[in-house]
Write a structure and sequence with these properties.
CATH architecture of the largest domain: 3-Layer(aba) Sandwich
Order of helices and strands: EHEHEHEHEHEEEHEHEHEEEE
Helix content: 25-40%
Number of strands: 14
Distance between the termini: 21 Å
Largest sheet: 8 strands, mixed
Length: 324
């Protein structure tokens, strides 16, 4: 297994930052930002908002030009008072500044970076270059900002799993399952987690920050998709297959599809697409898991060893995501 770099465990009262690592703050998200901030404070943290999180800031489809976003990220990575970085939202920017990241700052002071969607390439690049256990998890707005709408029992489950993940030096244990999980192919597997938003994973593989094939060896590949056709997903999965990556993985976790349209002439279900691409590969596949845009978002720490059991409809984190 490739070496991993665990961030330092957070403590009650630690200062964490909300940062615009891709898209900027929209007017209709202002209330979500406030609620997301409150959710992070409820986890026990002192929360700061970085300067790019500003309704007045905008550059094309981003919070700022790539150089400015990278400078903001690097400032937070270098600041010893900031103990974790939470992405404000997703967007379309991270692939533009991966080559500007101060990876040395990550190695010198590893801290959790949490987000999803367009944050996937950032998490993957940090993991590839440093081994950092970044967390594919909730965004502050469309994520933590929506927690108060969860049923009380489900809300507490999310509070508990994120708190254990970020503050405890013990293994977080089972992720809280929901009724929607489906066993698309039966089996059990153990291996490190790797993945993210499917289309971003495909794109990052064409950059110098591509996940090397050995990182897929014995891994549990997790992915989700939004706003795509089943034909596009089918093609992207075949790209991974032809790259030899699906031959290496031990299992697969598929997030609940969001705004995925069935392409005319093909099967209506994403399950059929996945199983066709896998062919005779007899590995466990768990579908419709709470990762990605369908929300709420279970944390998936990159590089962390997990156990997948489709018979039990369970996904368990077997080792700590943070160091004591």
């Amino acid at each position: 297994m490739a070496s991993i770099l665990r961030p330092k465990a957070l403590r009650a009262g630690d200062t964490v930052a909300i940062a615009a690592l891709s898209g900027g703050l929209e007017q209709e998200e202002a209330a979500l930002l406030g609620r997301g901030r409150s959710a992070l404070e409820g986890l026990g943290f002192d929360v700061r908002t970085s300067p790019l999180v500003d309704l007045e800031r905008r550059w094309w489809w981003s919070a700022a030009p790539p150089r400015d976003v990278a400078e903001e990220l690097n400032r937070l990575l270098r600041d010893p008072q900031i103990r974790a970085i939470f992405a404000l939202t997703g967007g379309r920017t991270t692939l533009s500044y991966l080559d500007r990241i101060d990876f040395g700052a990550v190695l010198a002071d590893p801290k959790p970076v949490v987000g999803m969607s367009d944050i996937s390439p950032l998490l993957l690049a940090l993991h590839v270059r440093t081994g950092l256990v970044g967390v594919h998890g909730e965004l502050v707005t469309h994520g933590f900002g929506e927690w108060e709408g969860l049923a009380s029992g489900r809300h507490q489950q999310y509070v508990d799993i994120y708190r254990r993940l970020l503050t405890s030096s013990g293994a977080p244990g089972p992720l809280p399952a929901s009724d929607g999980w489906e066993p698309w192919r039966q089996g059990r597997a153990r291996g490190p987690l790797i993945g993210g938003l499917l289309n971003r994973l495909i794109r990052v593989q064409a950059t110098p920050f591509a996940v090397p094939p050995e990182r897929f060896e014995g891994a549990i590949l997790f992915w989700e998709e939004i706003g795509a056709s089943t034909a596009a997903i089918w093609n992207d999965l075949h790209v991974l297959r032809q790259a030899g990556l699906l031959e290496r993985i031990a299992g697969m976790v598929v997030g609940t599809p969001t705004m995925v349209e069935a392409t005319a002439g093909g099967p209506p279900e994403l399950r059929d697409i996945v199983l066709e691409v896998l062919g005779d590969r007899d590995i466990p596949v768990l579908g419709n898991v709470d990762i990605g845009h369908a929300g709420p978002n279970l944390p998936m720490p990159l590089g962390l060893s997990a156990e997948l059991d489709t018979g039990a409809l369970s996904l368990t984190l077997l080792e700590p995501a943070v160091s004591g």
